[in-house]
Write a structure and sequence with these properties.
Low-confidence stretches: none
GO biological process, one term: ribosomal large subunit assembly
Number of domains: 1
Mean pLDDT: 95
Main location: nucleus
CATH topology: Methylamine Dehydrogenase, Chain H
Keywords: Nucleus, Repeat, WD repeat
Number of strands: 11
Strand content: over 45%
Pfam family, one: WD40
CATH class: Mainly Beta
GO cellular component, one term: nucleolus
Distance between the termini: 25 Å
Largest sheet: 4 strands, antiparallel
Length: about 110
């Protein structure tokens, strides 16, 4: 499980073993909504530099890119052969990098 503030402080996202990403108001701390699409526990997440998108990494060997404001799935990123343990956005927001149990680093252009 992981907790991460968006760069602008507006959102908090949590990754959890219930296969979901949960969004919270970063100022009030109140629950905003649940993002569901993974079929395995969510290990890690990362925010884009503009705080619009959050990417989640899961045991299901995929990454999912979510639009925070609409709480909709924007992109499904299959490609790892096993669990995805880590993910991060580039500082410019043009790419994300992920790594997992398959011992592969993947670079995802956005």
């Amino acid at each position: 499980m992981q907790v991460q503030f968006s760069p602008d402080g507006r959102w908090i996202a949590t990754a959890s073993f219930d296969k979901a990403v949960k969004l919270w108001d970063g100022v009030k701390g109140s629950f905003v909504g649940t993002l569901r699409c993974h079929v395995g526990p969510v290990y890690q997440l990362a925010w884009s530099s503009d705080s619009r998108l959050v990417v989640s990494a899961s045991k299901d060997s995929t990454l999912k890119v979510w639009d925070a404001a609409s709480r909709k799935l924007k992109e499904d990123l299959p490609g790892h052969a096993d669990e995805v343990f880590c993910v991060d956005w580039s500082p410019t927001g043009g790419a994300a990098a992920s790594g997992g149990k398959d011992c592969v680093l993947r670079l995802w252009k956005h």
